[in-house]
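Researcher: Here's the sequence for the chain we discussed earlier.
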Amino acid sequence: MSFFIDADRRGDRMKRSQKVRYLFDQFLSKGTLAIVLMLTVITLGAVLLIGVLSHFFAGGETNVFQTLWTSLMQTLDAGNLSGVEGSFGYVLLMTIATIVGIFITSMLISVLSNGFQEKLENMRKGTSQVIEKGHTLLLGWNDNIPVIVSEIVTANENVKRPAIVILSETDTLTVRDGLKATVKDFKNTKVIVRCGEIHLKDNLERCAIAHARSVVVAENDDVAIIKCLLGISQTAFFAEESKGHATAIFSSPQNLVAAKKMCGDRLEAILLSDAMNRITAQTCLQPGLSFIYKELFDFEGNEFYFCRHPSLTGKTMKESLGLFPDAAVCGLFRDGKPRVNPPMDTVIGENDQLIVICEDDDKAVIAAHSEERFANRIVRTPHQASRSVRRLLFIGYNPSLLAVVEEMCPYVMKDSHLSFLVPVDTETAPLDETLRRCGVGYDIQKGITYSNDALAKLDYAKLDTIVVIANDLADGERSDSETLLTIMHLKNILSESKLDIPIIIEIERIQNEPVLHYASVDDFIVSNVLSNKMLCQIAENRHLNAVFNELLGEEGSEVYLKPAKQYVKTDETVDFGTVVASAALKGEIAIGYRLKRIHENGGVILNPNKEREIVFTAADSVVVLAED
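Model: Thanks. This is the structure I predict for it:
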């Protein structure tokens, strides 16, 4: 019986010791502060015990407070031991205090060092709370993020204490290094990086999403975008009192519809395929057009602004065009909807806002008076449609080419002819079907698109434009290298044939843009850059999405490059105000011009001062907004 009782007692003692160890482990798991607190208690206990005992061994020569103080100093500073004098017991106790101090001090330094290292590691991982307000929140990390950050940094130059918060699953050091490699100057914008899954509510709230001005979902996959938007919808960002909006770029129209149903008016999205295919198609027919879009979608230079001028109430759209010397009026924002290039007799209402193109909104100032100095040099011909007979050569192939050809067909006449040189392994049946549907003449040849032999066999005599399409969208580096080689061969062939044919190229990677500049092409399209510039513009002003949709849509007014000789007399001095007045007579809005003799920025000059004098040649063009 006693054996079982002893066993029970041993079991109880074991349970108590296990419980004590468990509580001790729980206490230590609380982190650095708990360990420092424990060491402090141990230190004070040791100091108190040794101090009291030392008082007795000191023989009453000192009071208890002095021995406590000596014990504390001996514990905290082991170097004091050499000066200790007294009885053997007293010196022994001071030695014990020194040894205790060595262990406690060593542990304390180690704990503080580890705690500090842990804090730095957490900061590196980006797990702390963000307390910004009115910031832009970017979700995701890829090659597009540096482009977006650069644009927003430029847009924030006149903003007080702006901030950008980036949340991604990529390590924060990798994100920061990637940004610094591309964005050379963050100017007055503070960039905060956090790490975590972008669709989780806790991570989004850690980035102060409820106080964000706008959220940019920078993922390239529709599924990932919708998953992220679903996470955002669970946060206070979607609360009624919140004024922010989310932006994203979708590849599929069906996925865009699903996202709009889920997010309602909180989402301003771009359908990448439609926007880029229309820009590509229009640029193929009008070399130099992408330079215009680059500037309109870029925060550097001229971009769209909305402004209200009560003094214009009751005036017509035509009357307002010449009143702004440093801004190009291009439409009205009425009842929450933009109207680009409305009828010239449209009366400006009290609540209407003007849509203008200028360098900054403070440039949209009305002049005291406008003077028509060169009215006698206006060419008073009616509006002329841009559709014409075209002969284009496309070199290269990717699936988007089919959509580009379809977008292009309404803008060319049936007698036009399109030629194609596609890679040897290309399945041409879809291209055949698309071209037959368009009803234009065409021929398709196969060969190595970057081979001099294949290029030399083509007939260039009757061409008016050459378009080099990226072959491999998956491998942008390889595709851009092939494009560069193709251009080099084309330049040699055209030079030997003494032909001057505009060349337009498609670039996949923005990093290759400086290299391809050396090729001296007439125009180039970087689809991911243009789309992300649009995304940034919409993130700053959600109403611009409707403006861009009208400019790039099939209905409404679009951007055109039309011969300057249709507007003013060539080889004679005029000012840009005269060009604006001439375009207004045709129901168009002139926003700039393109000079053939200038190579920088494709010769495109947007929103020049109305009094700026120019002498146009027959090769120059006027940039207009028109229905065609």
